[in-house]
Amino acid sequence: MIKFGNTDNFYLLILIPILSLFLFLFLKWRKRNLLKFSTKNLQKNTLKNKSVFREKLKYLIQFLGILFLIIGLTNPQIGTNLEEVKREGIEIVIAIDLSNSMLCEDIKPNRLLRSKQAINKLIDQLEGDRIGIVIFAGESYTQLPITSDYSAAKMILSNINTKSINTQGTNIAKAIRQSVKSFNFENEYNKSIIIITDGEDHEEGAITESNKAAEKGVFIHTLAIGSENGGPIPLSKERGYKKDREGNTIVTKPNFVFLSELSNAGNGININANNSDLGLTTLFNEISKIEKKEISSLIFTDYTHRFQLFLFISLFFFMLNLIISEKQNLFLKKWFL
Prior knowledge:
By secondary structure, the chain is of the alpha/beta class. Helices cover 39% and strands 22% of the residues. The chain folds into 2 domains: 2-78 and 303-335, no CATH class; 91-291, 3-Layer(aba) Sandwich (Rossmann fold), CATH 3.40.50. The chain has helices at 15-37, 40-46, 52-73, 111-125, 150-159, 172-181, 206-215, 256-265, 280-288, 307-323; strands spanning 2-4, 76-89, 91-97, 130-136, 140-147, 191-197, 218-225, 231-232, 251-252, 270-273, 293-305. Strand 6 (191-197), helix 7 and strand 7 form a beta-alpha-beta unit.
């Protein structure tokens, strides 16, 4: 089992395509300027001992060095022992709304990012509980099956955004059905669904699905994200705000009344999250009231850091790059080196 201690450093991988583009443009610029200031015969005589293969090989080695350096910076760790760990807890599925209205900035930095921050803080407070993640808008998908691996939950959470689902809308009924499917009702663990949404423009059937889930013993809590006054929905690339057919700016407001009815139907509570209070303490206290059962999980322990190996490989490539010359090797010339 491999996990990474610094997953944020994976964002450094964006440097590879950026550097590739920069190299492509540089080579084109160099070729263009060589033609300006020299003749083809002069270039041929000047570069006759230069190996095109070796030049490309050096670029490849440099990129491999950067790749392994970035992997090393993520601090790879390998679990060496698989042990059965028994803890008390419940099973929780977090259903997070990814509709475009969640980009509204009435809660800073916006509803979606603040929701993700809230989930991260909630995960930090969990101990023996198992967690799953469902994403929804017009459709619903299980993004993370129920697991005891909180690191995996955080990594999955960091990568979701409104583009993770193509079909827009707010179909909470589908989100509840998908969340219920995540549970294994053959075990005795108590179960809870936390729905994080603004609840605006929802489809019909959510209350019915909440009642059905409650009949199976599932507690449904809702975190209503957004301010009472609401706000506009930003468009991508700073193109202003979403407008209706008449050209008026659309203002999105959370539906507190509906979300309260939804949580009541699911034997849970609704919490109104705003800039000053996300309601995490209240939510965690409510979850803590649910009777915890003993959960047995097989998990990897005794993780060993392996970043040294990747940093060594990176150093090897950088040293190899210094050793390899771009000039042709007469002895190996017949192999185009």
